[in-house]
Design goal:
It is built from eleven helices and ten strands. The protein is α/β, with parallel strands linked by helices. It has a seven-stranded mixed sheet with strand order 6-2-1-7-8-10-9. Strands 3-5-4 form a three-stranded antiparallel sheet. Strand 9 and strand 10 form a beta hairpin. Helix 2 packs across helix 5. It is globular and about 65 Å long. The N terminus is likely disordered. Bound molecules: S-adenosylmethionine (SAM). S-adenosylmethionine binds next to loops.
């Protein structure tokens, strides 16, 4: 590199970010979250963590790494929150919600009354749009919900998004995929400092338990879970991490139970415990 180019790079960078810094941070993120940061993610890591350095009034990534290593895990949680990608939407990949209605919920209410228990897990629920979409589908299909034992567990590693999911308050533009009839039925308009927002009604939130859960750690729940949504989350993990995860996920399900993955995810060469039966819909064998 000529000296002009190198000076320009240094001038553009607010914080010194060496190869060693990137390697150490990506190792930490992989160990803690399973997220595999490729070389192409270097700028993303810089951009997202530069905000943390500014907030903490630190001068370099070396100082930041020292803090992460020494403060008992507090900044490690912030680091992981900053790195996770939380993109989501209400009724994202809507065919999954149609499938849930037709192949799980309708047969469930038509089944013998002895079987009133249904457990659904939204693994990697981000800011809550996915579990609330599941809850809307449940309430629309099962109007006499009080007579049934239906629960949705919604988990994420990222404590910031989980807090927003629990709060259940959304700006109007987040509801663009939700029909006017659903907005009317399931949300309450609230005037906030940010303008008009929409809060989920208790009928929806009552069905959901939000919990922080790292998919890399042993699961506290025993199952069985008849339906698991694990969408757009494993895409950030390498194959080995995915294999280990689905050995443990498969233990929570019984033959015939369902698993939904994201549109670009697959269990091909990852798990033989499932058969593909629809568009990114898998059945436990
Ligand atoms: C892109 S969002 C997907 C949200 C939703 N499932 C959807 O499809 O719209 C991925 C979520 O996975 C979470 N995540 C990433 N690694 C995780 C881990 N090891 N354990 C639990 N959640 C994790 C992130 O925090 C993020 O909220």
């Amino acid at each position: 590199m000529d000296s002009t180019a190198s000076t320009t790079t240094l001038r553009l960078r607010e914080f010194l970010f060496s190869d060693e810094d990137f390697e150490a941070l990506r190792r930490l993120v992989k160990e803690h979250t399973g997220i595999n940061l490729s070389d192409q993610k270097r700028e993303l890591v810089y951009g997202r963590l530069a905000r943390r350095l500014r907030a903490l009034n630190l001068k370099s990534f070396r100082e930041y790494r020292e803090l992460v290593a020494s403060d008992g895990g507090c900044e490690l949680a912030n680091l992981c929150n900053a790195i996770t990608t939380n993109l989501t939407a209400f009724f994202r990949e809507p065919h999954h919600f149609d499938y849930l209605r037709q192949h799980v919920l309708e047969p469930f209410i038509a089944s013998p009354p002895a079987n009133r228990r249904l457990r659904i897990w939204s693994a990697g629920c981000s800011t809550g749009e996915e579990p609330y979409s599941i809850a809307m589908t449940v309430l629309e299909t099962i109007p006499d919900i009080a007579r049934w034992d239906v629960r949705i567990l919604a988990t994420d590693l990222d404590s910031d998004v989980l807090e927003r999911a629990r709060r259940g308050l959304y700006a109007a533009d987040r509801l663009r995929n939700v029909s006017a009839a659903r907005v009317e039925k399931f949300f309450r308009p609230v005037q906030t400092a940010g303008g008009l927002e929409y809060e989920v009604r208790p009928a929806l939130s009552r069905l959901i338990t939000f919990k922080q859960l790292n998919l890399m750690h042993p699961f506290p729940m025993k199952g069985p879970l008849q339906v698991i949504f694990c969408r757009n989350t494993i895409i950030y993990f390498d194959k080995e991490t995915q294999r280990d995860l689905f050995v443990r996920i498969a233990r929570l399900q019984r033959p015939g139970d369902l698993l939904f993955l994201g549109h670009s995810e697959t269990l091909f060469r990852v798990s033989e415990a499932y058969t593909l039966i629809g568009r990114t819909v898998y059945e436990r064998c």
